[in-house]
Amino acid sequence: MKIVSLTKNISLRRPLEMGNKEQLKTVKSVLADVQNRGDEAIAEYSEKWDGVKLEKFRVSQDEIKNAKEHFDAVLLNDLTEAAANIRLFHEQQKRSSYEVDVNHGSFIGQRINPLDAVGLYVPGGSAAYPSSVLMNVIPAQVAGVKRIVIVSPPNNEGFLPDAVLVAASILGVDEIYKIGGAQAIAALAYGTETIKPVDKITGPGNVYVALAKREVFGEVAIDMIAGPSEIAIIADETAYADEVAADLLSQAEHDPMACPILLTTSEFFASEVAQEVERQLRTLPREDIARASIENFGCIYIAESMSQIVEAVNQLAPEHLEIMTTEPHDVAVRIRHAGAIFIGRYSSEPIGDYFAGTNHVLPTNSTARFSSPLSVDDFIKKTSIIYYTKETWQQHVDKIARLARMEGLEAHARAVESRRWNKGVDQS
User: Which are the contacts of 385, defined by CB distance < 8 A and separation ≥ 6?
Assistant: First the structure.
């Protein structure tokens, strides 16, 4: 890893993968085709791109049952415990409706309602991501969403990974479809003969999925267009170089564009970590991916003080931030912008990815300056409530009319005044 002096102009921002013109053209064509032809179009694209001819898209109860029967018992317990931790964390995020008394029996308030239906995209094919199922489904369930749909591309035999089906089963989700790519996003947004549309789509995917999510936004809501993974680590000479190196590589192996960064005040420690990263790289199964990330986007910054590091991290607003210093809690309270903060030696980033309970769907590309992790709030909507009695209206009608006329909106003023126009009947 390259080692440089920390300046005020560091950045982890990279251009978001928005695809090229041909990819966008393909996505738009797929979306329109699915909207027009429904299931027929999905079947054709599944055969073309996933290499499988499916008679039915929906995963059967027998497939779910079979997955559970063949699944490792220890892993089943691990997933179940992780799900409980995730649910415990998200239960604390629940909101309540409220009313505020004004006067004369009038009130204003806010009503909280869950979304009716959401769709979760789980990447698939040769890989299995049960953690994506847990992290997206559970906050939706806690919010009160009644219909939760999972879509995921099948393997070339027409099946989804056992781990994905087991994770869904643990959560009681059984509306699962073996479709992926832009066609899956189209089905969730527009609906087909088999799949009813949803109100919001969440979950990561390839460039075609990202483009499709962007295109259907407005027809449905989406969670975010996430960029490559990133981690920033604040460490001093009390940390262990092999542990810091391992944590940097935990994100580097995600994607060639992942961004692993170390910030320290110790030149000696920086050199130790750089050597350890190279040593560990040689034995990583995903060495090619991790090496590209380290060489192109990895960096070790040497600062003059911890205050300089804190300022830089708040500028970076990283997706993941680990703090391994003498007093990590003191440093943590000074951080304003980060997707998730991992405090101390024993709180490495994968703990948040899989087990602690916090959500691993986090803002990337410095958007933690204004964005938050996926939460229960992403699966609710808020409705404002206004109730004015006659007495409250009488008290304020002239004020409201004056404010309307100040903006040149005469009809607004007349609307509030119309309640005192002569109706020809006694309204006392």
Answer: 99, 107, 108, 109, 110, 111
Average of per-residue pLDDT across 201-215: 92
Strand order in the sheet with 230-235: 3-5, 299-302, 259-264, 230-235, 320-324, 340-343
Domains of the chain: residue spans and CATH: 3-16+227-356 (3.40.50.1980), 21-222 (3.40.50.1980), 388-420 (no CATH)
Contact of 149 with 198, CB cutoff 8 Å = yes
Q: Say which residues have a Cβ less than 8 Å from residue 312's Cβ, sequence separation at least 6.
A: 6, 8, 10, 263, 301, 303
**Beta strand residue intervals within 223-277, DSSP E:** 230-235, 259-264
Considering only CA atoms, which of 376, 263, 340 is closest in space to residue 3?
A: 263
Q: State the Cα–Cα distance between residues 208 and 197, nearest whole angstrom.
A: 19
Question: CA-to-CA distance for 389 and 421, rounded, in angstroms?
Answer: 17
Residues marked as catalytic: 319-320
Task: Give the model confidence (pLDDT) of 225-245 as tens digits.
Answer: 888 899 999 999 999 999 999
How far apart CA 375 and CA 140 sit, in angstroms, is: 8
